[in-house]
Amino acid sequence: MAEEQRWHDLAEQVVNRAGFDLEELEVQAAGRRKIVQVIVDGDDGLPLDAAAEISRALSAAFDEAETQGVDAFGGVAYTLEVTSPGIGRPLTLPRHFARARGRLVAVTTHAGTRTVRILGTAQDGSVLQVLSGKHGTDPEDIPLSAISRAKVEVDFSGPSAAVREILRQDPRTADRFADAADQATQLEETDLQDPADGELDDEGQGDPDHDGDLDDSDIDHGQHDHGQHDDGQHDDGQHDDGRHDDSTDQEGK
Description:
ribosome biogenesis, RimP_N, alpha+beta, 253 residues, 2 domains, Ribosome_maturation_RimP
């Protein structure tokens, strides 16, 4: 646990310096290697170029730690991946709710689970401000302390015309719903577009910009491969021979 916390804290420093938030650092076994997945988010999502830069900075920071005699992640070869959160990841912090503004979210309180649309959060982050009711147009405040679980829902049909107009007029959501007439089309095109190549994406990618809804997948923005020689020492080289690779994976996992 102490070792995991060490790498988590180091990754958090690197990510914060880049102007983003570290949501999670996950280490998974993959045969003789490990997959180190660094989940990063920001107010406007995680652009591809930012993910690649964070991946390079993390790789350099981990390499530097290894030169000081600290074996990264148990001293075995590992692949470093930088990704944005998937749509199915639970919302637990005020910033998660703020970044989900305009979206449908299933919230669970002592009264049960219901679906609301987020407008934003109070300035102190203690209250979630939503649209609810039969037609989804009634403003309501829900204390964050009363929410035991929250998760973004897939919204294939998009908001109704009445709801879109409310979102367009509200300053917290106006940037995402600037044109009420074509917002549904804009959301669909944004969600189905692969950020790496601008083509329609049928591989189940996530939604790094948080501009709409797609699926529960994460999108893989950057990847570095770290290997070990037979003597257990780390080197910088090419991916094909199991050594470090400074390339980034732009196609997503």
